[in-house]
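User: Hey, quick favor. My workstation is busy. Could you predict this chain's structure for me?
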Amino acid sequence: MERRRDAYRILNVTSDADPDVIRAAYRVLARKLHPDGKAAPLDTAAETRMADLNWAYAQIRDAAARARYESERRAAPPPAAPPRAAPPPTSTDPWTHGVSPPPAEHDPTLAVLDFGRYTGWKLRDVAKRDIDYITWLRRHASGAHFRPAIDRLLRERAAKAGTARRR
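Assistant: No problem, here it is.
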């Protein structure tokens, strides 16, 4: 299904724009997208964008062409609605606030603190130096985001302490 193109949207102008504004918008965009102004070879997306730009300007560049375009635009049926996306996640979904889950290899204990006296430190490094701060952070509201990682660090520490006692 081909999508209906809108000349005004391609040129980034309103439908009641003055012809001088349309001409200026075309010139600015053409200067930006034209292949002669590029040092690197033109890619397919840029080629398509330049072709769309030329098409749009040809549709509304003068009064007669613009009147034809406007009559065709009014006569055409409205574009089909895009397919509906999945509803956004809610706070009851896993990974609250719509945040997607991290990749499987993600280690939450390597999260970096962005506040407090350990700004820029990884949780794992802070736990090695100041376990009391980590325990406090778990209880404090500012550490809510880090609770799963903190719980993991505390479990690891308890497991190490348990194996050290057995020896």
